[in-house]
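Both lines are given unchanged directly below:

***
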Amino acid sequence: MDVRLEKLKQDKEITDKKVYRAELEKYQRRLLALQQMLFQEKIGLIVVFEGMDAAGKGGAIKRMNEQLDPRGVLVHPISAPAPHELRYHYMQRFWRKLPQHGQIAIFDRSWYGRVLVERIEGYASEPEWKRAYDEINAFEKSLTDERYIMVKFWVQISKDEQLKRFEERQLDPVKRWKITDEDWRNRKKWAMYVEAAEEMLLKTDDPHAPWHVIEGNDKKYARVDILKKAVAHIETILGQMGQPLPEYELFGAK
């Protein structure tokens, strides 16, 4: 996927709250129907979220989970590796978090940290992060060859929108925990993150584990678009597997 992130128009939005709620619920219920089918057929689903700080990944994940059976969903917020995890290959901690066949695992950041933050902050040497593209592609291919479906989202916001959200978080006591000195420090490396993300999208996009770039300036639009694209990809892969799609009407999602 050859994309210039800062050239995205960021003009897509949903302004009508009723339309937003209707669209959101429709795709949430479709995802619920698909979850039940994946459970019955013992097919695992892996959803990866990456994006700029304050892009809205957490809110999108919350809406993705809202109607699902919580017994079959795992959400993994990924931060820096713990000291004991540094003794292993960097992928080891992600292998341990994979869902069972029939479960859903959502990664709020992921193994792509190797070619993003670890690259930019110097935690991985240049030979290490450069070879990681092939390692990651092989990892994902091994999973999708073995009854897993994978879909990946990069949520992009403009630099001005990020500043607006940072300042709102700083002033809101309920949201202040979301903003740290590290977020402000990372903002100064915006151009480096854009360059790394564009190379990542170019080198790790594949039909079996595709990237979807989401215009995130409007949160409502982004949440619906993520659900819509997740449902579409799952349906496509199920069709390739020869699996019939669920009857959405039974879940109130025509």
Residues 17-41 form the longest helix (25 residues).
